[in-house]
Each structure stands twice: as structure tokens, then as C-alpha cells.
């Protein structure tokens, strides 16, 4: 979603982005609202753009047995009766991990079995996050993992009870699609990418951007079983399959590039 953010930083950056877009023979994006923004920003014709959505190889996300999930949770340091939230994104500022930790601190105080699993691909902002965890006295309730190999991602997702993505901006949201594929209940932010992903047929708890109170309320609803997660996750599984699998979406690219 850089095309949504960078042009706002300065006129010079906006002109640079516009020039890059206008010089391209084809512009692709993972969501319609991003393509609409590209067209609005650059004034390029719509026939020079194409929507190619992120998609999954669903065979990489088989449902695990209860015994396997318990073993994974133990390996990660969780007890059978812990309630685990997993942050689906990186630690960089746009993903608002500081807000998540502050909301979780209140949840953990009221619910001693609550746990939070953070993972990251790059160490940007890691020291700040670790310091905040210490300041909030969450060292025994938050587990941080570094790079998670893709082949292990399914294990991490199914070890949790709820997935969280409270980013301020996004486009394709592949990490949320992965969570939907394993029927993981979700908390997401009120941004265009989320509404396009769910498309009126998927479901999630929707919270305001950097809104600690609404995030805490949604976490509370899940941990106290106020939400019909079976219905929610079934809707999301149907929705993510409707978006399509890896092969069929990748094949859409071939004729586009052949025409260039």
C-alpha cells in the first residue's frame, strides 16, 4: 500500500510516483481500491491497469489435529488452557503494535490466562517493542518469535485462538487471508483493504485505527466467548476460497505480460 502513503509525504515524492506510474506499460495491484487510487493519482487509463489479487496455495494450510495443536502450543511455551492472540503482521509502526500491547496489557490484567504471540520478518522497531513489553510488565505473557518459515506458518496460526491485524494502511492482506484459510477468528481495522477483503460475505471484529478501547472490547468479546466464531470462520473460509487459489490467479498475469 506504499502508493497510498508515499505521495502524501511531499510534492516531490508525489511527482516521482506519478512519473513512475505514467511510464509503466502496465500497473497491477492486489485490490481494486488501490487501482482506483493509482488511476486517480496518475491519470493513466484503466486499460493500463489490472487487478491480480493475492491468493493462497490451500494445500499449505491443512487442518491440524487437536493433539498436534497442543504439541505446538507446548513447544511455543503455551499451556493447554491459555488463550492465545497472534499478531499477524510485522513490528513496523504502520502495524500499531504499541496499541496492541497497551490493549493486551488491560486484557491480561483481567484474564491471567491471556497470551500474545508476536512474530516478525525484520527487526525494525524490535527494541522499542521489547522495552514496551517490559514497561507494561508483560514479559511472561508475550512471546516474540523472529522469522517464521512459510512451511511452519500454519502451525503458528492454528496454535492461536484469535488473529489480529490492526494496521493503519494495507492493500492485499495476504496474512489475513492465511488466517481465514485456517478458520482463525479475526480482529481487523476499519480500512478499505479490510472491507474489500471481506466483501460483505466474510466476517471479523472491526476496530478503529489506533483505538485502544475498541480493540480491548473486541479482545474481551473473544476471550469471554461472546462471538459466534464457528459462523464467522465458516464465512471467512468460503470468502477466501472465492478469491481463488494461487495457480488460477497467477495464470491471469501471463496474457497480460504477453501483450506488452
How does this model look, in words?
The protein is of the alpha/beta class. Helices cover 48% and strands 12% of the residues. The chain has helices spanning 2-5, 11-23, 32-42, 66-76, 97-110, 126-135, 150-158, 174-181, 192-198, 212-223, 229-243, 246-251, 253-258, and strands spanning 27-29, 49-51, 83-87, 114-119, 142-145, 162-165, 186-189, 205-207. The protein has a 6-stranded parallel beta sheet with strand order 5-4-3-6-7-8, sandwiched between helices. Helix 5 crosses helix 10 (212-223). The model has no long low-confidence stretch (mean pLDDT 93).
Task: Summarize this structure briefly.
The chain contains 13 helices and eight strands.
Features:
single chain, 260 residues, alpha/beta, six-stranded parallel beta sheet, two-stranded parallel ribbon, 13 helices
Could you say which overall geometry the principal axes of the C-alpha atoms support? Answer: globular
Mean pLDDT: 93
Number of strands: 8
Quaternary organisation of the protein chains = single chain
Q: Main sheet, how many strands, which sense, barrel?
A: 6 strands, parallel
Count of helical regions: 13
What radius of gyration results from the CA coordinates?
19 Å
Helix content: 40-55%
Class per helix and strand makeup: alpha/beta
- In the predicted model, the low-confidence regions spanning at least 5 consecutive residues are none
Query: N-to-C SSE series?
Result: HHEHEHEHEHEHEHEHEHHHH
The N- to C-terminal Cα distance equals 24 Å
Amino acid at each position: 500500500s506504499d502508493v497510498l502513503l508515499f505521495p502524501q509525504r511531499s510534492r516531490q515524492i508525489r511527482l516521482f510516483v506519478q512519473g513512475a506510474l505514467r511510464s509503466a506499460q502496465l500497473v497491477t495491484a492486489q485490490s481494486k481500491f488501490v487501482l482506483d487510487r493509482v488511476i486517480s493519482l496518475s491519470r493513466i487509463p484503466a486499460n493500463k491497469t489490472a487487478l491480480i489479487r493475492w491468493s493462497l496455495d490451500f494445500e499449505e494450510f491443512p487442518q491440524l489435529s487437536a493433539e498436534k495443536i497442543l504439541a505446538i502450543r507446548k513447544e511455543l511455551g503455551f499451556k493447554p488452557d491459555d488463550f492465545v492472540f497472534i499478531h499477524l503482521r510485522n513490528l513496523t509502526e504502520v502495524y500499531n503494535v504499541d496499541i496492541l500491547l497497551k490493549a493486551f496489557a488491560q486484557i491480561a490484567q483481567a484474564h491471567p490466562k491471556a497470551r500474545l504471540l508476536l512474530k516478525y520478518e525484520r527487526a525494525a522497531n524490535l527494541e522499542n517493542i521489547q522495552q514496551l513489553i517490559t514497561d507494561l510488565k508483560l514479559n511472561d505473557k508475550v512471546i516474540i518469535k523472529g522469522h517464521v518459515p512459510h512451511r511452519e506458518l500454519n502451525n503458528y496460526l492454528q496454535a492461536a485462538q484469535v488473529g489480529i491485524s490492526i494496521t493503519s494502511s494495507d492493500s492485499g492482506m495476504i496474512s489475513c487471508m492465511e488466517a481465514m484459510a485456517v478458520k482463525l477468528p479475526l480482529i481487523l481495522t476499519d480500512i478499505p483493504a479490510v472491507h474489500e477483503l471481506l466483501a460483505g460475505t466474510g466476517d471479523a471484529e472491526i476496530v478503529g485505527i489506533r483505538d485502544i478501547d475498541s480493540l480491548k472490547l473486541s479482545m474481551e468479546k473473544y476471550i469471554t466467548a461472546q462471538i459466534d466464531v464457528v459462523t464467522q470462520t465458516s464465512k471467512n473460509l468460503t470468502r477466501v476460497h472465492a478469491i481463488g487459489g494461487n495457480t488460477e490467479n497467477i495464470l491471469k498475469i501471463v496474457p497480460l505480460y504477453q501483450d506488452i
